[in-house]
Every structure is written in structure tokens, then in C-alpha cells.
Amino acid sequence: MKVGSSDYNHPGGSIQLSAGKTKGNARGGSVDIAAGDGTAKKGGRGGSLTLTAGDAFGDDPFDNGGDLTMIGGSANGGVGGSMKLQTGSSNEKDSGGIGKLLKCL
What is the pTM of this model? Predict the structure, then answer.
């Protein structure tokens, strides 16, 4: 899915995915995004999932790149939603690593 670009001085198209709200004793809808499984015994590599905020190509000091924000759900009576980050497991080798990538000037 792609959304169109824009001409000068107009914002580009946006995409918003949201699941359904609910009333009563029921859970709201979920949004799941998954890359494809590689199911072949030889050469079956799983697809990657990349979330990238927008680049800023302006020359002004306030032309900042887009933020990447992840927020757990709020709660009135219960505990707020957790943030989970888990690497992939392996039957033959170590699990994937969690790295910090910094672009230095």
C-alpha cells in the first residue's frame, strides 16, 4: 500500500490503521502486522519488518526527521500496557541481538 506524494507546500498523504472500539465487557480490536514466513526447509528465510519515520530534506535547523513513537495503552483501573521487545529465537544458534545504532557526524 502506498499513499501519494504532494506538490510544493502541501503535506504528503497519511495512513492511519486503527482497530474497532467496543462497549461493554469486551476487548477492543487489535492491529497485527507481520512479515512473511519462509516455510521451505532449504532457503526458507523470513521476511523483514522495518518501521521508518520520515526523513527531513529541508535546510532549516527546525527541519527535523520524523519521530518514531511506541506507546503502551493507558488504563483507568488496571495496569497500563507494557512495552515488549523480543529477539527471534533459533533452534541451531543464538537468538538475535538487540543493538543500538547511532549515526555519528
Answer: 0.64
